[in-house]
């Protein structure tokens, strides 16, 4: 277990013309009536605490009466575009219950709580600065994970749907100790697969508070899944272990769970299963993911020293000389996915090297 150091302030990278064209092609790029900077006009705020009176590091902001009317209307419009047909027919049923601002982390997002006044059901979405690396992370998650993601980009603003689940750190502390032996084994299996998926697609910084555990009731038992919720560290850091959740001290309990639940043969088998599924997803999204990777190859989403460090670390891991020639993070990821696909196709999947 390592105390990995994450870059304290990752720069926000602008959306290139090529990425902008890609987003337009796949209906991610759309005009919205409000931007991130508009929400920064708040006049004051109060701290938000959880049910145990712990500071959540979010603050609830408020605006002048004139600004609030304009902002509420615009946020209802964004909700309608994100979740419905974009028309105003549902506006009278919606209420903007809260606008929260996060003072922690790189993205400093706004969290919008929208409530249906007819039945009190509510949902959230997030308004963030549109960072190219985060957009690549969202698109890769949409195509290479088991989960579809709904997000929109407009100029310098990113709108993300809320991903429901129990924050990993909360689950590990409060819920994991009460899980049955069978449930713990199932969670351990999911962590192995999650770890493998993050490593292959170069999604970094999956400390326990950057993913959620999603419990689903299935007949007489509960199935647990692990979903990433923060895509800020897509293909940025140079240290290879940043992309492997098992090496973060915040995930120590999960790593211990894996080691006490499985022998190495079982762990290797679950890795092979995840790699096989990733290859199938790559084939399913062949043209689209090819276009996205072409954007990444030509884009700048990291520092030269990080690129040089990471390509050599992955070369040491894969022993493929093509990694040494990579000149961008996009090229490293493209080569990694090609390496995975070629390895899968050249051998019987059941005999793939873990």
Write the layout of secondary structure elements.
Blueprint: H1 17-25, H2 36-39, E1 44-49, E2 55-62, H3 65-83, E3 94-102, E4 110-116, E5 122-129, H4 132-144, E6 151-154, E7 157-161, E8 166-167, H5 168-175, H6 181-201, E9 211-218, E10 221-228, H7 252-261, H8 264-284, H9 286-298, H10 304-318, H11 329-346
Antiparallel strand pairs: 1-2, 2-3, 3-4, 4-5, 5-7, 6-7, 8-9, 9-10
Helix pairs in contact: 6-7, 6-8, 8-11, 9-11
**How many DSSP E strands?**
10
The radius of gyration computed from the alpha-carbon positions, rounded to a whole number of angstroms, is: 21 Å
Helical segment count = 11
Strand content: 15-25%
Walk across the major sheet and give the strand order: 1-2-3-4-5-7-6
Unreliable residue runs: 349-353
Structural class: alpha+beta
Largest sheet composition: 7 strands, antiparallel
The gross shape turns out to be globular
Short description:
By secondary structure, the protein is an alpha+beta fold. 43% of the residues lie in helices and 18% in strands.
Structure explained in plain terms:
- The protein contains eleven helices and ten strands.
- The chain has helices at residues 17-25, 36-39, 65-83, 132-144, 168-175, 181-201, 252-261, 264-284, 286-298, 304-318, 329-346; strands at residues 44-49, 55-62, 94-102, 110-116, 122-129, 151-154, 157-161, 166-167, 211-218, 221-228.
- The strands form two sheets. The chain has a seven-stranded antiparallel β-sheet.
- Strand 1 (44-49) and strand 2 (55-62) form a beta hairpin.
- Helix 8 packs across helix 11 (329-346) and helix 9 runs antiparallel to helix 11.
- The longest helix is centred in the middle third of the chain and has 21 residues, at 181-201.
- The protein starts with 16 loop residues before the first helix and ends in an 8-residue tail after the last helix.
């Amino acid at each position: 277990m390592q105390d990995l150091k994450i870059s304290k302030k990752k720069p926000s990278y602008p959306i290139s013309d090529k990425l902008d064209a890609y987003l337009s092609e796949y209906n991610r790029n759309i005009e919205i009536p409000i931007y991130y900077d508009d929400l920064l006009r708040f006049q004051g705020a109060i701290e938000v605490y959880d049910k145990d009176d712990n500071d959540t590091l979010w603050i609830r902001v408020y605006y002048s009466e004139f600004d609030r009317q304009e902002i509420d209307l615009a946020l209802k419009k964004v909700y309608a575009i994100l979740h419905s047909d974009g028309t105003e027919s549902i506006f009278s049923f919606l209420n903007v219950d809260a606008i929260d601002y996060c003072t922690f982390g790189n993205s400093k997002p706004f969290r919008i709580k929208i409530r249906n006044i007819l039945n009190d059901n509510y949902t959230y979405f997030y308004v963030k600065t549109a960072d190219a690396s985060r957009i690549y992370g969202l698109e890769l998650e949409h195509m290479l994970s088991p989960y579809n993601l709904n997000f929109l980009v407009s100029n310098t603003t990113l709108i993300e749907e809320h991903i429901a689940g129990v924050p990993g750190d909360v689950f590990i502390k409060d819920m994991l100790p009460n899980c049955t032996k069978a449930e713990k084994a199932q969670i351990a299996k999911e962590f192995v697969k999650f770890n493998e998926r993050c490593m292959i697609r170069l999604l970094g910084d999956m400390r326990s508070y950057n993913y959620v555990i999603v419990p689903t009731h299935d007949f007489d038992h509960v199935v647990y899944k692990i979903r990433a919720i923060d895509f800020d560290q897509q293909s940025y850091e140079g240290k290879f272990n940043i992309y492997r959740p098992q090496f973060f001290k915040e995930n120590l309990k999960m790593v211990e769970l894996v080691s006490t639940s499985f022998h190495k043969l079982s762990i290797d088998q679950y890795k092979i299963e995840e790699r096989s599924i990733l290859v199938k997803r790559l084939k399913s999204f062949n043209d689209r993911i090819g276009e996205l990777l072409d954007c990444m190859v030509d884009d700048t989403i990291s520092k030269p020293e990080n690129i040089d460090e990471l390509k050599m670390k992955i070369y040491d891991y894969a022993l493929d000389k093509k990694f040494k020639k990579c000149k961008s993070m996009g090229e490293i990821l493209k080569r990694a996915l090609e390496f995975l696909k070629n390895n899968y196709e050249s051998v019987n999947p059941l005999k793939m090297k873990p």
